[in-house]
Amino acid sequence: MLDRYDVAILQALQADGRLSNTELAQRIGLSAAPTWRRVRRLEELGVITGYRAEIDRRRLGLGVLAFVRVDAERDNAPAMQALEAALHGMPEVLSCHYISGAGTFELQVLATDLDAYSRWVRDVLFRLPNIKDVHTSFSLGEVKAGGPLPLRHLLP
């Protein structure tokens, strides 16, 4: 499905999503027109899903990053769908994963401070349908975040 040029495009755009098509073409060793066609094809295939700026959350006053394990009743499909929809629509929730083992969901949640996080749990999270229990761990510092996807397995 993907050849070495496609992988090179993905690696380059992960490193710098603001590359112009001309710059991208130079980096991967193709001319501009086929590079543009390849990028469009990768977008159409859903391999490239979007472009965004990386923003330092701390500089915007979002000092608390919490990892929240939510326990929910798994055998009530309508309640699970309502809970998933509610979590999906919350701007404080950076990511939500349906997990194995203890718990049902693992969330990454941002808040300005511990008081704001506590209010969010009490006033928002605990009011959602189907919540049984919540367990929180707080990030004490980032070692690595938002790294590029490993793509070596795509190369021959």
From TrEMBL:
GO terms for cellular component: cytosol. One of its GO terms (molecular function) is sequence-specific DNA binding. Residues 2-63 form the HTH asnC-type domain. The keyword Plastid does not apply. Keywords: DNA-binding, Transcription, Transcription regulation. Pfam families: AsnC_trans_reg, HTH_24. GO terms for biological process: regulation of DNA-templated transcription; response to amino acid. It comes from the Bacteria. This is Lrp/AsnC family transcriptional regulator.
